[in-house]
Write a structure and sequence with these properties.
The complex is a heterodimer of chains A (about 190) and B (about 450). Chain A is about 70% helix and about 0% strand. Chain A has about 190 residues and is mostly helical. Chain A is elongated, with a radius of gyration of 20 Å. Chain A starts with a helix and ends in an 8-residue tail after the last helix. Chain B is mainly beta. Chain B has a 4-stranded antiparallel sheet with strand order 3-2-1-29, with no helix packed on it. In chain B, strands 4-5-6-7 form a 4-stranded antiparallel sheet, with no helix packed on it. A 4-stranded antiparallel sheet of chain B has the order 8-9-10-11, with no helix packed on it. The relative contact order of chain B is 0.11. The chains are: A mainly alpha (about 190), B mainly beta (about 450). Chains A and B meet through helix 2, helix 3, helix 4, helix 5 and helix 6 of A and helix 1, helix 2, strand 14, strand 21 and strand 23 of B.
Chain lengths: ~190, ~450
């Protein structure tokens, strides 16, 4: 069913149309929120907050074509609000140090999926939000800037920094897994 | 090393592969919940109909003819005179809204209800009941009412007020609060300032059912900041996140500190900016009890030190007051009622392994900078605490109880400020407790 038609219907108060939109988007929103918040319970809260606000404020959406971006904005902002409003503790963000090498005698080969998980943890919530918006939700940088309400230049510099940190961490971790996976678990 | 181009092209698939949780189990429940909610009417969105974006919403004012104004002023004078006579004949005195006061009852959340009791636990009185979960009690400055959060089956929370004299609690919020929305009683105890997750400060009447009034927009009020400036509360302060910057090491977005005169033209003014490389955490800024100073954590160049700073009430004279060796994060400041000291949570970084460890609550003398320790109530999240109204003790619960909806429970701990001696209360609570202010 045409999304624009559903948005227009939902904007006019048709909850069935909104339910259709919500069912179609909730999986992606949940995954995006989990990537940003790193906590499934918080992600659920953020997605709930975002979708509730979407239903409530949908009459204010001028352009139905902007629904996806608008919904992503609500959800990402709900994520960042949760991060801001939780009591901040340095050990919450004292994540696995990005440049800390894995021990050479680790016998378990770490899949690339787990490497990405580790390096994502090394970013703060704002950095993860930019990475998720651009690479997971597929938003152009101008739209990311609009969602986060920061200049495009700031988005670019933060993204550049985040990717650099991720690449270095992946490279370090990959080098160590090669050591760990040497025959007999010993360094060649 | 993976080439940059290859890494970036693989990243979308890698991110998609990270969490393959399937359809969230709350999907259908969420759809049902929204079906019970109303949408905002389209006419309440001016940006839908006009080509400009409204940045602020002014508090509506009306102008009245002088004659009617004079009649109202006369009526107000007569009422004030009658009230003065009435109050003058009453034996009970009210405490001041700020500064030192007497220690009254303690309000806490127990088994989902709001209870008040004496410090010893004697004469406990349950003020709320029912299937809802009530938490986060906060006494009004005059000690007569308690604001609290109510969680029902619907998402979000309701802000409620119950009288100490008894009676049915009144709902003061008109739409659900999100987890983490901050609220604070006005000094006159007749209304509550609510900071919402969509960055509005709302005036909620605590005496009668009235529609909320928008006091400020693009304003962030964080649980832990004080909003009303003593002694009269005519000014409020808040931070703004219009200029989004990352707080180094804490992943927070830092804005400047703004003040709004509630009796003025409704336009906030910036009193302390937050330019690079400064990192001032105004989310937890606190007025001194006399309203002449503002305390807040700020870095001193190294993003891993957040030390206590103070500034004059107009934003001038910013100076650090907390010193000492080591890498520290100091936060969650609380002035003593007499304004001589500040208690705070702190964490220290271990240089050998880079790990952070929570340290005992610190108490710093504002004038001398001398810091001593109070017992932690403890968890890695620090302590939720506040001073007793008379300033002789700190009452705290583990920081794990923070955040609305926490399921953890603990016994509050009372720490004598002078001796450091700590004693636990006899009852279990689910959130931070609130101590009633009474006249001395």
């Amino acid at each position: 069913m045409d999304q624009r038609w559903l948005v227009e219907r939902a904007r006019g108060g048709d909850h069935d149309a909104f339910a259709e939109l919500a069912r179609a988007t909730v999986v992606r929103l949940d995954q995006a929120a989990r990537l940003i918040l790193r906590d499934p319970e918080l992600a659920r809260d953020a997605v709930q907050d975002g979708l509730i606000r979407a239903w409530r404020d949908l009459p204010g959406l001028r352009d139905p074509e902007r629904f996806d971006a608008w919904l992503h904005r609500l959800t990402v902002n709900a994520c960042l609000d949760l991060v801001r409003r939780r009591r901040r503790r340095p050990i919450e963000v004292e994540l696995a140090p990005i440049h800390h090498p894995l021990t050479a005698d680790a016998s378990v080969v770490i899949a690339q999926r787990d490497l990405i998980d580790i390096v994502l943890r090394g970013l703060d919530a704002g950095g993860r939000a930019i990475v998720v918006l651009h690479y997971y939700l597929g938003m152009p940088l101008t739209e990311v800037a609009d969602v986060l309400r920061i200049p495009v230049g700031t988005v670019k510099s933060r993204l550049h920094r985040a990717l650099g940190e991720m690449r270095i961490a992946l490279s370090d971790a990959s080098a160590d897994t090669k050591l760990a996976s040497a025959p007999g678990g010993q360094v060649a | 090393m993976t080439s940059p181009r290859r890494f970036e092209s693989d990243l979308p698939a890698l991110l998609a592969d990270l969490y393959l949780a399937g359809t969230p189990d709350y999907r259908d429940d969420l759809v049902r919940q929204t079906s019970r909610m109303r949408q905002r009417p389209a006419w309440t969105f001016p940006e839908r109909w006009i080509p400009v974006e409204l940045v602020t919403t002014r508090v509506p004012t009306t102008r009245m003819p002088w004659r009617q104004l004079g009649v109202l002023a006369l009526i107000a004078l007569l009422l004030a005179a009658a009230l003065a006579v009435y109050i003058g004949t009453r034996p009970q005195r009210l405490p001041p809204p700020f500064g030192v006061a007497g220690n009254g009852l303690i309000a806490y959340s127990s088994n989902g209800d709001i209870v008040v009791a004496e410090r010893t636990g004697a004469n406990a009185q349950q003020l709320t009941s029912g299937p809802e979960s009530d938490s986060d009690p906060l006494f009004s400055p005059d000690g007569r009412r308690i604001a609290f959060l109510r969680s029902t089956r619907a998402p979000g929370y309701q802000l409620m007020v119950v009288s100490l004299a008894g009676g049915r609690p009144m709902t003061v919020s008109t739409k659900p609060l999100a987890s983490g929305d901050a609220f604070e009683w006005a000094p006159d105890s007749d209304w509550i300032l609510l900071g919402t997750s969509d960055k509005q400060l709302l005036r909620l009447d605590a005496v009668e059912h009235r529609e909320p009034v928008i006091v400020a927009t693009d304003a962030v009020a964080f649980p832990g900041a004080s909003l009303f400036r003593p002694p009269d509360g005519h000014e409020i302060m808040f931070t703004r996140e219009s200029e989004v910057r990352q707080g180094i090491g804490l992943g927070i977005d830092l804005g400047g500190l703004w003040v709004l005169d509630l009796n003025g033209d409704g336009v906030p003014r910036l009193i302390i900016d937050n330019p690079e490389p400064e990192n001032r955490d105004f989310r937890v800024a606190r007025w001194s009890p006399d309203g002449t100073l503002i305390a807040f954590p700020a870095t001193i160049g190294d993003g891993e030190l957040y030390r206590i700073h103070v500034a004059n009430s107009d934003g001038s004279g910013i100076r650090r007051i907390s010193y000492g060796e080591g890498i520290w994060v100091e936060s969650d400041l609380r002035w003593t009622p007499d304004g001589s000291m500040i208690a705070f949570n702190r964490w220290r970084k271990d240089p050998s392994n880079g790990g952070w460890s929570v340290q005992p609550v610190g108490i710093i003398d504002v004038r001398s900078g001398t810091t001593r320790e109070a017992k932690i109530v403890g968890s890695k999240d620090g302590t939720l605490f506040d001073w007793s109204p008379d300033g002789t003790a700190i009452v705290g619960v583990p920081g794990a109880l923070a955040g609305h909806g926490s399921a953890a429970t603990a016994k509050p701990t009372l720490i004598d400020s002078a001796s450091g001696a700590a004693t636990d209360f006899s009852w279990m609570v689910r959130t931070q407790v609130s101590w009633q202010r009474i006249a001395r």
